[in-house]
Amino acid sequence: MKKVVLSGMRPSGPLHLGHWVGALSNWVRFQDEYECFFEIATWHALTSEYQNAKEIKQWISDIILDWLSVGLAPEKCVMFNQSEVKEHSELHLLLSMIIPVPWLERVPTYKDQQQQISNRDLNTYGFLGYPVLQTSDIIIYKAELVPVGEDQVSHVELAREIVRRFNNFYGYVFPEPEAYLTPIPRLLGTDGRKMSKSYGNAIYLKDSSEEIEGKILPMVTDPKRKRKTDPGEPEDCPVFDYHKAFSNREEIDWVMNGCRSAGIGCIDCKKVLIKNLNEFLNPVRERRLKFSIKPDLVYQILLEGASRARERAKITMEEVRERIGIR
Ligand code: TRP
Ligand code: SF4
Question: Closest ligand 2 atom, CA of 237?
Answer without folding.
Answer: 1
